[in-house]
Amino acid sequence: MPEGPSIIILKEAVQPFLKKKITAVSGNTTIEKERMLNKKVVAFRSWGKQFFICFDGFSLRIHFLLFGSYLVNEEKEAKPRLRLDFKNGFINLYSCSIKFIEENLDDIYDEEVDVMSEKWNPDKAKSYLLAHPEMLVTDALLDQNVFSGSGNIIKNEVLFRTSIHPKNKIGDLPAKKLAEMIAETRNYAFDFLKWKKQFVLRKHWLAHTKQTCANCGGTITKEYLGKTKRRTFYCNNCQVNYSLDKV
Fold first, then answer.
1. What global pTM score does this model have?
2. 142 and 208 co-located in one domain
3. What is the extent of the structural domain holding 71?
4. Strand 58-63 relative to strand 69-72: parallel, antiparallel, unpaired?
5. What are 70's strand-pairing partners?
6. Which of 1, 34, 128, 228 would you call most buried, defined as having the most Cβ atoms within 10 angstroms of its Cβ?
7. Structure confidence at residue 246 as a pLDDT band (50, 70, 90)
8. What digits encode the pLDDT tens for the residues 135-185?
9. Between the CA of residue 207 and those of 71, 139, 188, what are the distances in Å?
């Protein structure tokens, strides 16, 4: 599933089509795609893992789900969910969820919880988490209501870098450790963006998909944790389970 930094890269890649009219629409989506024909794109926006193509009076929301992808000025054999043509190029969107949004995006998407946004507000994240002390940290870091744009890679890497065991609940964490986790989520998201652009993201993974701990040389454990049972990689030696102190 593309995480927030990957959506930023998409937003940057399509900038040549800003203020340009759509000259043709195609694809196997069942939405009224012809609605966009001859319409000018007034903005490209992102919120967490969602990408928006904005027109005068409405927007198109794209969510890439688990296996979605896109190509700009390129295509593959698979039929796209949606293809948008412009005089200067085209966008292909594959295996994604597409819907029209009629409302003003600012009224329904809070940029203060988007980890990639200039308006990101760590205090809002802290308040939300403190109000949910029974939430597992693995669930918290995937909760788009508090860390919009954070996904499974960010979750695993942030917990490893902050030495937080994934089986902690929010209420188990010392105040300083909670603040560190919040700050590192945004910090790592921008590292992710930088490394993704350089095509070296995987080289920087310390825990995600690993078998050996980069710190102690011990075994990395793989479990499916949290409400969504996403893959979680962690080191029992280096990541502290504060909940054990309360037993």
1. 0.92
2. yes
3. 4-108
4. unpaired
5. 93
6. 128
7. low
8. 999 999 999 999 999 999 999 999 999 999 999 999 999 999 999 999 999
9. 29, 17, 13
